[in-house]
Amino acid sequence: MRWLQRFWTAVGVTSLAFLVVTGLAPQRRAAEGPRESTADERERTLWRLARGPLLIWIVLLVVLGGSAWSAFFPLGALNPTINLLLAALMLFILATFLMDLKSASPVVRLVASAGVLWVVFLFTLTFTDYLSRRQSLPIEQSRLTLPHAPSNRAGFGNSESTPRSPP
Amino acid sequence: MSDVSEALQEPWPNLAVQREGVSFGIWVFLASEILFFSALFITYAVYRSFNPEAFAAAAKETELFYGTLNTGLLLTSSMTMTIALRAATVQWRGVTLVALALTAALGLAFLLCKGLEYHDDLTKNLFPSAAFPLAAPPAQLFWMMYWIMTGIHAIHLSAGIAVDIAVLLLFWRRILPVQGSTMEGVATYWHFVDSVWLVLYPLLYLVGRS
User: Fold this and answer.
1) Are A71 and B206 in contact (CB under 8 A)?
2) I need a surface site. Which of A75, A86, B83, B164 has the fewest CB within 10 A?
3) How confident is the model at residue B7, as a pLDDT?
4) pLDDT of residue B137
5) What is the rounded CA–CA span in Å between residue B189 and residue A105?
């Protein structure tokens, strides 16, 4: 269960970091402009267009390699934690630099952040239930059962075996 | 080069504002998609939290080579898609068309590898059924989630490839002038499909390897 607690903690921390960084990042958008004319200018323009995505691509591949490599070390609960944190890092890089949230308008950043925020709520509310159950019991035994009812049909109105209260 | 104003649609006053609207609209759609995939992720997380050993044993049977190769292919396709968007923004038709074609080719390569992986999985009977080879019953839960999540992702990627090729044809046949407004939604959706795979990869392929 410890890896799950770490997982949704990591989701929460990453989401907050995402909200803060994308909210504070300066707005910058490439200007729409005419095509370059000379060969030299075209070459320079191509390099200017491609160098950012190329750099991000290399970083993402390095992180991917690190994630796959770390999975083979017997680190116990740290294995899924590291893998999920590296996945969150890759998502952050992708969203910020390739999906252009770094230079997006505040309203676009707000909508993108809202999706992530609801995911945090989804995981928090769900695991508030599951992580607070008795962890020694399997899921089917941690279900609510009614007194005097058969354990396998609790609360489903089996008239032959469920005692009725007198009128 | 045709006039870029031909790409302007009602009710936008100019392409910059139209691009902003496209970006806003696609992110609203993606916010709902994030929640759609999160429902699958949380189902996986709950099942795994109650069956950690069976999930680790089941995940060992996935094809790590195909999973890692496919992740690399998608990351590369995100790079070429971003170059296509940047080139379209400065109305560089040639680079935009080549980058879009490369992106579609990388997406198709992903589907091809996925098909080969599915073939290997089915050969080993790794599908919830009476012939399932692993003893622990929750291992079938893992493989059920594997088929559902990768299948839905493949459907999303197929839609992305179709839209990519559609925009490529629109630009190539000069039905639309090359500009960033049209490309914005296509690129953002493509990166989202890539993002979903980045979450699926550690959940399905890296569990139980140590």
Assistant:
1) yes
2) A75
3) 82
4) 87
5) 18
Supply the pTM of this predicted model: 0.81
Q: In degrees, to the nearest 5, what angle opens at C-alpha A147 toward C-alphas A146 and A153?
A: 50
Residues of A in contact with B35 (CB under 8 A): 115, 118-119, 122
Closest CA to B160 of B85, B106, B93: B106
pLDDT of residue B92: 93
End-to-end C-alpha distance for chain A, whole angstroms? 47
B89: contact with A, CB 8 A cutoff: yes
Q: Please judge whether A99 and B202 are an interchain contact, meaning their C-beta atoms are less than 8 angstroms apart.
A: no
Q: Which of residues 26-85 of B touch A (CB under 8 A)?
A: 27-28, 30-32, 34-35, 38-39, 42, 45-46, 49-50, 52, 64, 68, 71-72, 75-76, 78-83
* A24-71 per-position pLDDT tens digit: 444 444 434 444 468 888 888 889 999 999 999 999 999 999 999 999
Torsion of CA B205, B68, B77, A17, to 10 degrees: 60
Q: Which residues of B touch A36 (CB under 8 A)?
A: 90, 92
- Quote the tokens at residue A135: 């962890």
Range of the domain at A91: 2-27+44-133
Distances A119 to A22, A128, B11, B150 between C-alpha atoms, Å = 17, 14, 33, 20
How many percent of chain B have pLDDT more than 70?
Answer: 99
Total domain count for chain A? 1
B165 or B4, higher pLDDT: B165
Q: Which of A46, A91, A104 sits opposite B198 (nearest CB)?
A: A91
A54 domain residue, yes or no: yes
Complete domains list, chain B, with CATH: 4-205 (1.20.120.80)
Count Cα neighbours of A43 within 13 Å in the Cβ-side half-sphere: 3
Closest C-alpha among A30, A97, A27, A28 to residue A59: A97
Give A151 to chain B, closest Cα distance, Å. 21
Structure-model confidence comparison of residues B126 and A150, the more confident one: B126
Are residues B161 and B106 in contact, defined by beta-carbon separation less than 8 angstroms?
no
Dist. CA B206–CA B210, nearest whole Å: 9
Chain B, 158 to 187: residues with Cβ < 8 Å from chain A are: 179-180, 187
